[in-house]
Amino acid sequence: MRILQIKQAEHALADGRLDEACELIAGGDLRSHRRGQALLGRLVSALVSRGAEHLSAGDARAALADCEKSVELGGNLPEAVALRGRIAEHVSAGRRQERRRGERTAAAREHIEHGRLSAGEALLADAGSVGGPSGRLRQEASQRRLIADAALRRCAAACKRRDFPAAIDELLTARAHRAETLETAALAGEVTSAVLAEARAAVGDGRVERAESLLRRLAPVAGDQPDVAELLRLATECRRGWMHVRHGEFRRAGEVLRRAASLAPAAKWLREAIAAADRGAVAAEALRSGPLGMLGESAPAAPASASAAPAPVETPAVLAPADGSNPAGGEVLPRRFLLQVDGTGSSLVVRDERIAIGPISSSQCPDVGLLAEANLPVVSIERTEGDYFLRSASAVLVNGKATTGKLLADGDKIALSSRCRMRLRLPNASSTSAVLELSTARLPQADIRRVVLLDRELVLGPGAAAHVRSEMLTERAVLHVRDGRLLCRASSPVTAGGKPLDAHAGLPLETPVRIGPVGVVVTRL
C-alpha cells in the first residue's frame, strides 16, 4: 500500500500536480522508506521553487502557502526558511509602498483642494490605479481645471465689454477652483486696472456710490492695493461729510470734504461742495449770532396776571405709529430702515411679516427690488409663528430644486436665476429674525449686502450667531423693538452725540450712535 501511495505521488509530482502529490502523501509516514524520503525531498524542492515563482509574480499569498506546505513536509529546511524571509520582506515592502502611496494621495488631495492642480497631479502620476481615490482625485483636478479655464474665458469677455461685476465674479470663480497662475494674475491685474480707472472716472463725475460699489467688489481680487484703499477712504469721507450736512454741521462737513478732496483733487464737484458747506457754515453762524439766536437763549417771562395771559396756543397733535403703539419718548421706528454698522457695511431691515422680492423693474412692485432681469419671478417670504415660507407664482430654485412653495430652513439657497441668488440664514436659535444674504443678487444701494427680516430682536456682534456680524465688538449687543422704538441692550456703553443713551430710550434716527467701539446709524428709507 505504501509503495502504491509513493508511486501515485511520484506520478503527480512528475506531472507538476504538487498539491495532489501533497494530498496523496498526507498523513503517511514515508521517512522510513528510502524511496519516500527521496520523494519528500523532490516535492519540498518543487514547492519552494513554485513558491519563488509566485513571489516573483507578486502573489505573496500563494507563495506563503507553498512555503508552509514545504515546511510541513520537510521541516525548516534552509531553502524554505530563505523563501519565508523573502516573502516577509516582500510583504513589508508592499506595506511601505502602500503607505507611501496613501501619503502621496493625501498630499495630492490637499494640493487639489487648495487649487494647486499641477502639484496634485504630479503626485498622482505614479499612483498607477485608474479607479479608487487616485482616480477620483484625477477626475476632480481635471474638472476643476475645466471650470477655472471656462471662468477665465468668461472673465476676459466680460472685461472687454466692461461688465466689471461679472468679470470679478468669474475671476473669483476661477480662483476658487484653481490657484493663482500667470494667466490668472495677468487677468486680475487687467481687471483691477480697468475697475480702478472706472472708479476714478465715477468719482470725477460725482458718482461716489458707483465707485464704492465697484471697489468693494474688487477688494477680494485686488487685496491690499493702496489705490483701492485710497478710493474707498474717499467714499467713506464723502459719506461722513454728507452725514454732517444732513445734521446741519456745515463746518465739520467742510473739514471732512477737504480730506476727501485731497484724495481726488481733480473732482470739481467736491470743490463746489466744500464751497457750499463753507457758505452754509457762515450762514448758520450768522443766524445763531443774530436776533434769532437770542430767542434760543432766553425764555418768555411769565404773565403778570391772569388777565394778561396770552391766548392758549393749540398743541399740535402727535401722530401715533402705524402699528398703534405710543412710544414713551424716542422716535417711531419705520417699517423699513437702513442699519449702517462700522466695518460691516449696510443692512436693509424690514419689519413686515411678509415681503415680496424680485426685479425692481417688475410690474408687481416688490418690497425688496433687485437689479435683475425684468422677466424674473417675484417671490414672497412670509413669517408665520417663527417659520419662514417661500411662495412663488412660477417655479424658482431652492437648493437646486424647482419649487413654487417651501418651508425654508437655515442655509437654504434661493435662486431666481443663475445670476440672482441669495441664502436664508437663521443664525440665532433664540431669535426668529432671519437674514437674507445676497450672494449674487444686487440691490440699487450698492453697499447693502443683506436683508434682515426683523421679528422682535436683532443680534449685533462677533461670531456666526449674530444677524449682523461685527468682529469689532467683544460681546453681543441686542437691538429690539418695544413700543415702536428701537432699543439697545448691551454690556458696552451706548452713546449718541457723545452723550450716554438711556437704556429705556429709543435709538435716535439719522444720528450716529456708538455701541462700545462700533458706530451705528439707523436711517429712514
Class of secondary structure makeup: alpha+beta
Shape: elongated
* Mean pLDDT, all residues: 81
Taking the alpha carbons of the first and last residues, their distance comes to 111 Å
Q: Biggest β-sheet, characterized?
A: 15 strands, mixed
How do you describe this structure in short?
It is built from 14 helices and 19 strands. It is α+β, with helices and mostly antiparallel strands. The termini are far apart.
Features:
single chain, 525 residues, alpha+beta, Serine Threonine Protein Phosphatase 5, Tetratricopeptide repeat, Tumour Suppressor Smad4, 4 domains, 15-stranded mixed β-sheet, four-stranded mixed β-sheet, 14 helices, 19 strands, 47% helix, elongated
What does this 3D model show about the protein?
The structure is a single chain. The radius of gyration is 40 Å and the shape is elongated. The strands form 2 sheets. It has a 15-stranded mixed sheet that branches. It folds into 4 domains: 2-94, Serine Threonine Protein Phosphatase 5, Tetratricopeptide repeat (Alpha Horseshoe); 161-287, no CATH class; 333-349 and 454-525, Tumour Suppressor Smad4 (Sandwich); 352-446, Tumour Suppressor Smad4 (Sandwich), CATH 2.60.200. 29% of the residues are buried. The N and C termini lie far apart (111 Å). A hairpin with a 2-residue loop joins β8 (413-417) and β9 (420-425). The chain has 14 helices and 19 strands. With 525 residues, the chain is of the alpha+beta class.
